[in-house]
Predict the 3D structure of the following.
Amino acid sequence: MTEINFVLFEIFTILLLYIFIFIYSAISSDTLTSCLSLSIFLILLIPLHISLEKLKVLIFSDNLENEAFFRILFFYSTLINVFIGFYLIIQLIYLFITQ
């Protein structure tokens, strides 16, 4: 169970970084900042998906696949990824068009 806690901490940390990237990118309207935010977002996608797959394996091995918390976590982490990814791409396209 402690390994699940470590993986959950890792997932929440990456999601927190995503939210900070989103807020920082939303506040600033600089093209360089948006490019850096998008690149950091894309770099952090790999560790997040590896952690989510590791969590799925741990949940399956501990017979916890019916827990609502884990299903909600998978849904909202995907939702956050899609929303922030689309936002950063649209913001970057907008900044390139307006310059």
Notes: The chain has one domain: 2-98. Residues 2-98 form one domain.
